[in-house]
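Consider the following assembly input.
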Amino acid sequence: MPSPPPGLSERDFQAALRELEGVVGREWLFATDEDVLLYRDGYSPLWGEADERFASAAVAPSSVEQVQGIVKVANQYGLPLYPISTGRNLTYGGAAPAYSGSVVVDLKRMNRILDVSARDKTCLVEPGVSYFDLYRHLRTNKIPLWIDTADPGWGGLMGNALDRGGGYTDIEFRDHFDAHCGMEVVLPTGEVVRTGMGASPQAKTWQLFKYGLGPWVDGIFSQSNFGIVTKMGFWLMEEPQAALQVSVTVPKRRDVVPLVDTLHSLMCAHTVPSQVTVASPLMAGNNPELVRLRGSGGASDADWDRFAANAGGAPFWAATFVYYGPSKVIAAQWEHTKERLAGIAGVGFRETASYKFPLTDEQAEAVADKARYGIPSLNLFGSRTAPNAPPLEGHMDFSPMIPPHGEELIALTDYTGKVYADQGFTPSFVAGMMFHPRTMICFHAVPTFRNAADNARTRKLFETMVRGCTERGWPIYRIHPVFQKLGMEMFGRDNGSLHRLHETLKDAIDPNGIVSPGRYDIWPKRLRGTQA
Amino acid sequence: MPSPPPGLSERDFQAALRELEGVVGREWLFATDEDVLLYRDGYSPLWGEADERFASAAVAPSSVEQVQGIVKVANQYGLPLYPISTGRNLTYGGAAPAYSGSVVVDLKRMNRILDVSARDKTCLVEPGVSYFDLYRHLRTNKIPLWIDTADPGWGGLMGNALDRGGGYTDIEFRDHFDAHCGMEVVLPTGEVVRTGMGASPQAKTWQLFKYGLGPWVDGIFSQSNFGIVTKMGFWLMEEPQAALQVSVTVPKRRDVVPLVDTLHSLMCAHTVPSQVTVASPLMAGNNPELVRLRGSGGASDADWDRFAANAGGAPFWAATFVYYGPSKVIAAQWEHTKERLAGIAGVGFRETASYKFPLTDEQAEAVADKARYGIPSLNLFGSRTAPNAPPLEGHMDFSPMIPPHGEELIALTDYTGKVYADQGFTPSFVAGMMFHPRTMICFHAVPTFRNAADNARTRKLFETMVRGCTERGWPIYRIHPVFQKLGMEMFGRDNGSLHRLHETLKDAIDPNGIVSPGRYDIWPKRLRGTQA
């Protein structure tokens, strides 16, 4: 039997579980050791250690009323809950709670697609709706709308949006939180609140206009623990006539500066509509000279360009992106893009894929870079950090945000490359990805293991980079639950006033501190001293 | 001498004012009758009546520290404050407080443009920076960035954004709150909080990435009273190569359905980048047959089309919008637009203006439709609701939000036309304006007067339309302070749970209830009973 949450007697815990059974029915309360292992974080950097976070039970409601019932029981017993939608975000903690002993509220049964409007290009979904679910619904019903999927696509719209994840299609949809329109939330007190226009009972605009009247509260329900979101609207992309995927390459290391400046300018003007990935194919692999350069912390451009020349003249950087729209508009945009980049000596332009929509099932299956066309897939699970590297046991994402400047990308790769090398790891930096209008996310995979000694090294690496990147001006945009306290410390200006505001909100909205204690380092009053 | 705020003795009020003088210096505390009249709402629908809202004094700080000092004094004495940035939003209450007796915190002296980055296309400003200020700064320094101005342009970026106002250029900038990136707020307790990446002391991304880590709190500071915002970042538009302004006309009343559907689809795909205004030139004026049709509440399409034919064959609807970008992309987008709209019998396409940028000062001065090119102006003050109507003494904006559907626009004009007529007013509906990606704002001017009898009629008209539009599914997106209680009642689903959440937040963030009591009907605990 799993242990009860801290501070709860075995007897009260069992009584609470029986009441939860009363709410959801016996078959939807999971409380054996085998049950709760299913909610374990398979990539945990604390795997098998005393501090690893475990659920004490899980409960799977099927309706808003059942969620309210669960919250009521939790308030009565002081039972910590940990709501998850699909719980599939493995590199950010998966389904395991931030606070050991929490009862996972598994929302997978609430998986109804409540509304899709082809005319308005919107949908309204429940927490358990996955990217695959919505994609299949649209294809089956021949609705000419695209989703913007996370990659891999097995997660769900709501969880990813609330965690502020990103995708690959047009700018309006890539920032998944920004692409939402309207929420329904069960507050920790059990009250149901609809946000935006949803608070006006007859409104025809709940999925059309974000704000409603008065303060716009939606943001406080992202990356937090202020309620259980039970419905969420999203804006969807109308299927374009056509798409053209291109690759722009530049030969020298410092060419990334004009490359990124120009692409950023074109993105801000919507001339380049899609996510832009800036990668250095040269920087992957384990060639000894490469390893030396990456670990040096500041090899010169000349050294790097010499290395590139010896590597057979492959371009140093490649930018990948897609145009969506009418064919003649695409042609004009691509032509203008080439003109704007023509000043970089040795720049290369290549059209790598081209589509007319709609695609047949066979054509959709054959698309190489599926996420760029709103097609969810699990292809990423086949990838590794480097061509010849062993498969990872697991990893955490480490993603500092930098200004969209080539010199920042170079400085970042210099810095993290050296940290990885100094601490005995192979650098894992994959690419700078322009998901958002004015920043570049720099993904790094930090490996996790199934043994404590290696995980201690990994945790040290992770902490070093979080602190080091913050000091250099590049804070992260989300972080694994095990490191959320560290993460929020990095946002500690004015003596931690933002964090204090979070906890002020927590005390007001969740007076008994029952929803996801500790998530993003927001502790309810009753646990604050003991956990800090 | 102005009266002290309710509940404060004359003696305590005078003591508080002396302390405020100590914070800002004698010349920046305004406490005579003449002083506070400057903060009167010239368009008040309660003009000269007992309930008209008056300030008791005003105080003009020059720094964040002085704002903190003011807040400290207010907490000590229970002094209600009413912060304004430029206070110029006349149709939404101007500079007058929501709660009579409040001390206006006039932030006009804090008018520094703290940062402009041409490379990143961002700025950071203080509350008093007006659209004119920033426009002049950019022109003087030849920075190739555009602002997105409200119209008229005498207000300021911050106040307009916090009120969730809108503009006319590209979609990324028109929703002024959405175009902000990063805030600094003085909380009612005096603590300073920087939001988003600003909470990370060395971050290079405060104006580049909106969210930071943990809950995103920015939204709660819009249309609310939870703090005094002292800095705000914004995204700016890179000056395009060219622009083409066009007009698309359709002959029959029901043609507005395919017209709006198609333009909405093109807007969602960024093929049409600017705000789209859909107006009916035919529906302005006071021709007796027009007045009869507008007041009928549901004249048939045939009746209307007959009226249009008799009016000399002018088109029924005209849509106005602008393409921004490289000339060849604009040409392809306009061509595609025409193809998509070609199916509407009798559709007309006209190019009404065309520009290459940058403009000389003379060219800029000659631009007719300035707000569409980021040029602030006061031209709107020369306009009237109907060609031969007398100038208004004042007016309030009444702006229901409808889905972007032509039939909703028709239903709305039928409904509000009849309400105006039934209550003895000339209908004022101007246009359906697609500021946001998936809604149309339908502006109406509701006249205000300088006499109580007419204002009583106006208040009845306003209330009737607020309630009637809400019942029909078209709630408003902001509302004059005198009607904020009514407005929030329209967002009363689940027994008013959203409003209760607002007041829960208020009690937590502003325990003494000193900032803008009553704004958007959010009352602090100490005033709640007395004001409801």
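Chain B has four domains: 10-108, 111-238, 242-471, 483-527. Ask yourself how this observation constrains the way the partners meet.
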